[in-house]
Amino acid sequence: MKLADAIVGWAPEIVAIRRDLHTHPELAYEEVRTADVVAQKLESWGIPVHRGLGITGVVGTIEGKTQNGRAVGLRADMDALPMQEANTFGHASKHEGKMHACGHDGHTAMLLAAARYLAEHRDFEGTVYVIFQPAEEGHGGAKAMIDDGLFSLFPMDAVFGMHNWPGMAEGSFGVVAGPVMASSNTFHIRLEGKGAHGAMPHLGVDPVMAAVQLAQSLQTIITRDRNPLQPAVLSITQIHTGSADNVIPNDAIIRGTVRTFTDETLDLIETRMAEITEHTSQALNCKAEFSFQRNYPPTINHEKEADFCAQVLNGIVGAENVDRGIPPSMGAEDFAFMLREKPGCYVWIGNGLGGHRSEGHGTGPCMLHNGSYDFNDNLIPLGATYWVELAKQWLTSSHS
């Protein structure tokens, strides 16, 4: 493994920053303190800072010793999750109901370490933009930054992202061309019937049975309408109805999520859901209100950029530690918006199996969005070295 010596030397300092961020988690668009920490560190290293894109976003500009007209963007997310931490170690969250359970504190730390190295050495051509993004967790901070002018104010030829991945061995990476994360979409269905006494159902219109029938029927979209070679998930996660054992309620609510890797499959699912909802409700004498919200598009890595990232990683950890065949995740990531605007690639860095957690961690697994999760600080020198090498090689390569 080939790590940048300077970054290895700074590791204790960067780990302290990461743990401070973990102790003070902030939710989407509330990352004021986090953004302050990031901006102050960048400025202390001589990096000009722009703030306010996407409300709390931070962008640093690092120019090389010479300019060649090329620029590259490196992105990390900053927000935490609205959930309770189960860990009790020294850097556990001090904010009730808020936790860095996805490792965004670690992502921020790795990019800070890389920014410091690039600013102190500047042994590259062109410009590196370090992008610290708010509101990844379901609130579209990437799109907000783009809408506020990210790519017009900071024109770049490509943009890259990275996420820690629990269960993947420490010291390894995953890179795949094409889909790496799915789209994220939600639906809401309201079925309106006519309330009645539970002992006299013939005097009402039962939305409960309509909901039961509809829940079953919607699954036929996956099993009969969708091309089986196109992955997709349709999960009903909530059904709300009724308030008493002997009362047929007036309405029922069905909610859930749909995940796909292509817009074509998503179009099919949304269309068929609307049709089945309408006809099933009509058959059971109910009225239906159907809404479908498209939140994040699929995260699609560009082939040339994925190959380039793999080459860079091969030189750091060896090809045997770079998995080019990782199966895409049905989870979602709003870096997808950036990859729709610019060429780039999103890689996974192995967070290990959880053995890095100190005494006082929760009893649950060290998985993403789990109250017992903690970022593996051993990754900071490795992830930062990858960022540095990726930027330097991209800016000087004919590939770019």
UniProtKB/TrEMBL annotation:
Residues 185-279 form the Peptidase M20 dimerisation domain. The Mn(2+) ion enhances activity. One of its GO terms (molecular function) is metal ion binding. Mn(2+) binds at C102, H104, E137, H163, H369. Its cofactor is Mn(2+). One of its GO terms (biological process) is diaminopimelate biosynthetic process. Keywords: Hydrolase, Manganese, Metal-binding. Pfam families: M20_dimer (PF07687), Peptidase_M20 (PF01546). InterPro entries: Amidohydrolase (IPR017439), Bact_exopeptidase_dim_dom (IPR036264), Peptidase_M20 (IPR002933), Peptidase_M20_dimer (IPR011650). NCBIfam families: amidohydrolases (TIGR01891). PANTHER family: METALLOPEPTIDASE, PUTATIVE (AFU_ORTHOLOGUE AFUA_6G09600)-RELATED, PEPTIDASE M20 FAMILY MEMBER. This is Amidohydrolase. It comes from Pollutimonas thiosulfatoxidans.
